[in-house]
Specification:
The protein has helices at residues 21-28, 36-42, 45-63, 72-81, 94-104, 126-134, 176-184, 213-222; strands at residues 3-4, 11-14, 85-89, 110-114, 144-150, 157-163, 169-172, 188-192, 208-210, 224-225. The protein is an alpha/beta fold. The strands form 2 sheets. Strands 2, 3, 4, 5, 6, 7, 8 and 9 form an 8-stranded mixed beta sheet that branches. Strands 1-10 form a two-stranded antiparallel ribbon. The two termini are 31 Å apart.
């Protein structure tokens, strides 16, 4: 079990997952076990853009359902007061990200912002490691921690990642792709639990669980011991169909 003290946090990365995958999988006629973007990239070149546009159409509809997670404003105010730099890593295209920022986070600066055009996408850790390098973190994900956020929308999920002086990187996300990307980048992972992602509490890529974004502030102030909160309700579920490759 790893102790993760987090005072003096200086960077945070929001890794957004803004669209529920079920309508996209239905539109593309693919099962949960198939990665959405890998499927699109495997199509003949003439079919890739129509497939991407069908995904974008669903994402544009989902934008109207975006709702802020309780505690988001308090967390952003805390990060602002602490002078924490913020970035974004997502499998969505840029319009839903811009809508989210302009609607719920006006005045907050996020840079860099990595969207679907970056390859390889999550669950590969390349996007997280790319941002770490942009921030001058030559040790990659060793200085990051990951935390998972849901925006209480039928479609919307989000993730947070930050660099701290305690040599940890934190990532906030809501899908297994996000948790796996953070884990393989060397980050500690923190799950913001909801009724959709509750099963991930027991996943091997989840280190700590929180119930509200406000809880994240005390984590940043006081640190935590990875593994304490996620394994209290028995063994991880086995034999379940795993959904991979959301957007």
């Amino acid at each position: 079990m790893v102790n993760l003290p987090l005072p003096n946090c200086s960077f945070i990365l929001i890794a957004l997952v803004l669209t529920k995958t079920l309508p996209i999988r239905a539109a593309l006629s693919i099962p949960r076990s198939t990665d959405i973007l890998e499927h699109v990239y495997s199509l003949p070149s003439s079919d890739q853009e129509p497939a991407m546009e069908s995904i974008r159409a669903i994402e544009r509809t989902a934008m109207a359902a975006q709702k802020p997670q309780p505690g988001l404003a308090a967390l952003m105010e805390y990060l602002e007061k602490r002078g924490v730099r913020k970035g974004i890593c997502t499998r969505n295209f840029d319009l839903p990200v811009t809508h989210l920022l302009s609607t719920f986070l006006p005045g907050h600066v996020f840079a860099p912002i990595i969207t679907r055009d970056f390859r390889p996408p999550k669950p590969h850790p390349a996007g997280i490691l790319h941002i770490a390098r942009k921030w001058g973190l030559e040790d990659g994900g060793e200085r990051l921690i990951m935390v998972v956020i849901c925006f209480y929308s039928p479609y919307l999920w989000s993730n947070l990642l930050w660099e701290t002086d305690a040599n940890t990187i934190s990532k906030v996300g809501d899908s297994i792709d996000d948790m796996t990307a953070g884990h393989h980048a060397g980050a500690a992972t923190v799950l913001l639990v909801n009724e959709v992602n509750e099963h991930l509490k027991e996943h091997e890529h989840t280190d700590v669980c929180i119930g509200s974004l406000d809880d994240l502030i005390s984590v940043l102030e006081n640190g935590f011991e990875a593994g304490d909160e996620c394994f209290e309700e028995g063994e991880a579920r086995k034999g379940e169909e795993v959904e991979v490759g959301g957007v």
